[in-house]
User: Fold these one by one.
Assistant:
Number 1:
Amino acid sequence: MDPSFFYIGSIHIPAYFTMLSIGFLLAIFLAKRWAAQNSLNSGMMIDFGILMVIFGVAGAKILHIFADGHLYDYINVCIDPSKVDWHVDKLDCKALKGSWDTAKELCHPVNKNCLAWLSGAGFAFYGGLVAAGVFSIWYIKKHKWPAGKIMDMGGWSIMLGLAWGRMGCLLAGCCFGSVTHSHQGVSFPSFSPASRQQWLAGDLPSYRLDSLPVFPTQAYESIAALLIAATAYFVVPRYKKFDGQVFIFSMVSYAIARFLLEFIRMDERGGFLSLSTSQLIAIGMIAVCAYFYKILKTRSKKIITS
């Protein structure tokens, strides 16, 4: 696991964004090809794909800020850094030029930083999905594209991008699973998010040690997304009864997979009623998809009848 693929001089190229970029570039390329095959403007499809990525990244960052338990830290680091706790040891506190709190045995930032929320870390997929979805509704209506067909195209392209993005998560070490002693366990190196989380939980004496073996939930989700994308691209279109059904299949399949995977994820994230934020959103997504399934199916029957 290495959060950086390579360096250009002193600039490191992050693995997460590299993998995510590859995934979405591939998805946009295939969407452009799909547009040409379906008599749509392929150039506009490229614009659409790029804008979807931009809105997706923005939405993912916003949901992270509000739902993953870091909102007050972002506010306080801008107003009163002494209220922000950095869970690092004394040596790292000195390296970060922070203020060591002997009583609490943790570090506080010294300087205000009102742009900390713009850091490269911290994104929530569902936030990106919702933001990109809202934008796509406006864009599709504006250009009078066939909404159902575009939705179906999104069913496999979104999952394809996610599959690559989760492999980036694996390389970056985020979104890791709970401790396991099975043959599937993966140990992340020292200073990784898993090591830090286990140190805070008292399972490791120091985050300067390799983590205990954990479930590679990033790889599980990547595989699930690839299977959903392949099924949505090659199988479901042969049997679909109406436009939009492929998209509904993909979203429901992902929601179920994500809901189950959340039970073995151990990275820091928000939640309510013993369920994580992603599990609550997954339940809502399935309900919304069931509603749209009923509407689109009824509409298709009326069209066939007429």
Number 2:
Amino acid sequence: MALSRRNSIHTIAEATGLSAVTVSRILVGKTKGLRRDAVERARRVEAVAAEIGFRPSAAARSIKSSRTRTVGLMITTSHPDAKPANLTHQYETVLGIEEMLADHDHSVLMLRMHDVIDAVKLPRVFRENLIDGMIVLGDTPDRVIDRVREISPKSVLIETNRNQLTSCVSRDEYAAGREIAEQAVAAGYRRVIYLSGFSNHFSVEQRLAGVRDACVNAGVADFQVKNIDSELSADRFDAVIDQVDRTTAVLVYGVAYAARIAHLASRRRLVAGVDYGLAAAEELVLDALSWPELARIRNDRWHMGSIAARMMLGQLDGDTSPPASVKLAGTFVPGLTLSSV
């Protein structure tokens, strides 16, 4: 016969010689002591719980604590052509969020941008308070962020255009642009061509500013900026390749641009790192495996997600002040495409 929660808790308490309160805390993961006696005590409780088939009731716990221990996660973009398949670089961040929350006995519930901005009425997840807070990831329109903050005051933003002093996590995009330009100059390249992005994300402007400032500070006389549209048309890239020589470094917003340049240049028997320099201001998930030779900026997106989750947990655990925003610097990976001139 199935036992009630109260009887089960007391059954475990009697079998282990512990109080019902201690048993309850162990079963919901609130006691994570590393002392040998604490570990052994937890093992005894878990063994008895498994023997009688007892599982803590999330619903009962939510009623008692007024918390669901669930955090909403919304991956967004303001670019009209973006599809989930084009946002694979976000998965690493999602893993960082999920693993940190899971370590603290919280779950993640995926949400759609439509759920907060275009719905005729708020979905059940908001009407019935099924989440304790929200994490928003990606290039998010301001009206969406405003709506999120309205319906979920406890929120954290990752890589959005809303760079506030609190509750935001982002990469240092200016430093990424500056770093690849400084590395190119240090390697001896005297001409720099920068291929800029086309989206409205703050990284486009910041990376360009970093590259430009580094070139100005180094006295690079021949510095050019090429704006590449979403079509990645061959004509635009061919026009760049027409200008390259051994003293030219082609610096690019992202790896897709670098791949396009390298592919078209190879048709002319031009090799990056030999006949011209090539470096990207970011690294996506699979770049380290598929193209380890590329000079690039590496960011730990898993760590970024983990930091955002810790910010959220702090708010849920009662921190009275919003967490200070965090800007993460990347690491330059030399590769072989930006060799000394």
Number 3:
Amino acid sequence: MTREAGLDVGWDDLRLCLAVVRARTASGAARALGLSHSTVIRRIAELEQRIGVTLFTRLSSGYEPNEAGQLLAQAALDVEPAIVRALANVVGGDRAMRGVIRLAVPDLSGQALMRVLAGFAQAHPGVTLQVEASQTPEPLTRGEAHLALTLTAEPPTGQVGVPVGPVAFAAYAARTACAAGQDLAWLALPAGLGHIPVAPFDRAHARAFARVHRLSGVALHHAGVRAGLGAGVLACAVGDADADLVRVGPVLSDPAATLWILHRQELRGNARVATLFRALRTALLPLRSVIGGSGPDSAAMLLPALSGLSVCGR
């Protein structure tokens, strides 16, 4: 705790400020910190009142940090790596199968992952799982997760693990919509997925199709494709497992989209993290071909080359 010149600011305060600066919204900061929306708003107000300084401008779109807010966020960035390393070293030697494991995974990781977690939880009742949806290794880098399933070409510094294999994507449409010869719209990838290797393919089709819809979140995107709202890109492991969907485009893959199981290097000696890591590795490595898109061949229904006229090849 820092007590200087009448200030009373701790790491939780700095971490809160940094989360709001990163997310620019209270709801985004709440998701990152595992708090409720109202708790984040209350704690920001309490911090500002305690130090007598306004840190953020409240806008209809969210929270815009002023100079003071930026200074506190930078202070958090300066000390965050050291705190993350210290905590990881403390937790790293824990041999007990009790406590919390925080796991970051991509949205729609599938029933296979949930079955692994259910079996792990049943076998180790002293362990509590906290699972966060994330498309990048950032929660692991910032110390917000112990383990992560993430798409990356190589593990970031300080993270170790095993590659499961390249993740394949393809365009999918509702089977009933294709059978009926519907002229579907294009469902653009949700915001926040612009970094994945298939994003240029998605953007090209969004420009070419006469009608383009965008749904917020991967789960809604999948549901929209399934309902016949439009065709869109999905991971093959998700699309091929859904009997109501059919591939309507070629398999798209890139080495930069390799699925890795990662943990922080300092956690090698943590028993519960090591046990869950082995469980994930045992379950996911045999699924390499599924994740890599070796499912059904729908070559007869390929998307026309950016024509936007008939998504089901009719």
Number 4:
Amino acid sequence: MACNDRRLLLFSTPNRGVARARNLGIANARGHYVAFLDADDLWHPLKVERQVEALNIHRSDPTWAGVYSFHRTIDENDRITGRGQLLVDCRGYILARDLVLKFIGNGSNLLVRRDAALAVGGFDPSYADNGIGGCEDLDFELRLAARYRIELVGSFLVGYRRYKGNMSSDGSRMARAMIETVARHLKANPAISRRVKRWATGSAHRYAFQVLLRQRHMLPALVAYIKLVLNDPIVAIITAGEVVAAVAERFRSERSFGSRLTFLSADPAADSDMPIDTIAFLKQGRLTDEDRMLERDETLCSTELRETIDLTTRGENTLAASAAEVQHRHVQEVR
């Protein structure tokens, strides 16, 4: 396709992690916006169009940097297996809500202004370098959320694939990556209240418990659950109930037959008005208040916006140098 369409450029790079690959793309992009699509995920045909429309509404306001949509989980055959978190009114300054509820959900969701991606430094390769790659997307969106406002398109426009063998199925690594990512951002944002820090830490250990239990790493899962109890006992009780319900549902599903809808055949607006889950219901109000407080304290002030210009220039130079290094190494390896 790239050979027949001059608008498309194809870059090849050795496998040095998702962060460096995406930074290469950002450095070479020439459009106003950039979006990312993992090879095993799906976009609805209207995904980019609707997200660009939503972000263009704020084009004259530099505090709005990105836009996300709802997502559905899919299997190897594109069949819908579930959905991500629904927070219908979650837009604007969302750092606290995203730290605790993580509703953007995957790296194929965001569409962002290229200059904003550069201003926050692109994707961080240090996670993969330290053997805990897997949450670079969350790290990137949290750095955006700490500095900018994020918009929402309330339709299911992303199919997030989960299956044995893909990156998100490596439970032990993903658990460590999640815990480390959240810890870094809590340290980087000291204005966050103590309560929300506990909730965010508990949420990271809840995720670790779930992925470790799914892969039957029982002792690490137990350790993660204990840390969840210590940080957020109410969510720990809810999580235990979900495990029991999931076991019962598995037995029922093993006795049921019939095809599911595929992602592209489903109406993207269907189910977008479903009620939010229990944890989001309990926490969204307080987290929204926290975000308002953080936004007021940090004010997204004009000083910071002026610094964005300098950061964008520096980020662009850094990513350009990184891209040149990757291409140079690739040439050397070919030789």
